[in-house]
Amino acid sequence: MSEIRLVRPGETDYPDGLNDLEEPPPLYVLGSTTTAPAVSVVGTRRSTRYGMGLAMGFGEALSRAGWTTVSGLARGIDGAAHHGALRGSGMAVAVLGSGVDVVYPVENIGLYRSILDGHGAIVSEYPPGTQPDRWRFPARNRIIAAIASAVVVVEAGEKGGALITARLAAELGRPVLVVPGDVDRLASVGCNRLIKDGAHPVLGVADLIAELELILGRPPVELTLDDEEIPVTGIPIEDLPDLWRCSPAEALARLARMEVAGKARRVGDVVVPGESSVP
């Protein structure tokens, strides 16, 4: 493990966005930091398969464009966004509600290590060894909101950390982009309310990149992208870890095999879990 550093406000590698907080906190940093524009991708831990696939696609697209993906290393949407960023070979920054040497949830230890191996960063305002007490996470969310130039909410229930992050981002003047969902889907209740309250809807990977170009300017890496290049698919949760390590072409080939095996069915251009459509 690399050395843990303490970065204070005013120092060269202190994230500029955190200076917008009323009391910018010192940050413990494990891994590498970057000055590239950052985008936070957040959402519920109780995500749907569709939301997981979309978050992964967003993370990969941001990564391929040369932007940094920020999230909280949590189950569900956060972890999927981090995995997508790593698949795109770009920078992922995880903001923890514990010390940077305490992995939570423990099942994300592989993701934690992959972020560090991929020259990403694990950051926290809490000293090493600090345990993930519940009350620390709402405070953690203000860092996720401030460190980025925009916040993207993929799925959010009626309550939860993603809504706290979105509110804090709006208070800091950060654009909030939100994926709309079915009106009766529990994982979309918070998203739809955010849009009703004025957040900007984002309708896919290509739409996200186009919206961020208006906010951040042209991406560091020239990127010609349509939604077919980074497939957003509904797939069984147990198959996601392997697909995260695949190229888009390999992922599509594996999904096709799942369809033939009767583990998925095709709806238009999307493969979803359930009874196969192949006779």
Can I get a quick summary?
This protein is an alpha/beta fold and 279 residues long. It is built from nine helices and eleven strands. The chain folds into two domains: 4-232, Rossmann fold; 233-279, no CATH class.
Structure, described:
With 279 residues, the chain is α/β, with parallel strands linked by helices. It folds into 2 domains: 4-232, Rossmann fold; 233-279, no CATH class. Helix content is 35%, strand content 15%. The chain is built from 9 helices and 11 strands. The protein has helices spanning 49-65, 77-87, 109-117, 136-147, 161-171, 189-196, 205-216, 240-244, 248-260; strands at residues 4-7, 27-31, 38-42, 68-71, 92-95, 121-124, 150-153, 176-178, 200-201, 264-267, 270-273. It has a 9-stranded mixed β-sheet with strand order 1-2-6-5-4-3-7-8-9, sandwiched between helices. The longest helix has 17 residues, at 49-65. The protein is globular and about 50 Å long.
Radius of gyration: 18 Å
CATH fold call of the largest domain = Rossmann fold
Which structural class best describes the helix and strand composition? alpha/beta
Question: Biggest sheet: strands side by side, in what order?
Answer: 1-2-6-5-4-3-7-8-9
State the separation between the terminal residues, measured CA to CA: 51 Å
Q: How much helical structure, as a percent, in the residues?
A: 25-40%
Poorly predicted residue ranges = 233-241, 267-279
The main pleated sheet reads as: 9 strands, mixed
CATH architecture of the largest domain: 3-Layer(aba) Sandwich
Shape: globular
Beta content = 15-25%
Count of alpha and pi helical runs = 9
Order of helices and strands: EEEHEHEHEHEHEHEHHHEE
Mean pLDDT: 83
The top-level CATH class of the largest domain is: Alpha Beta
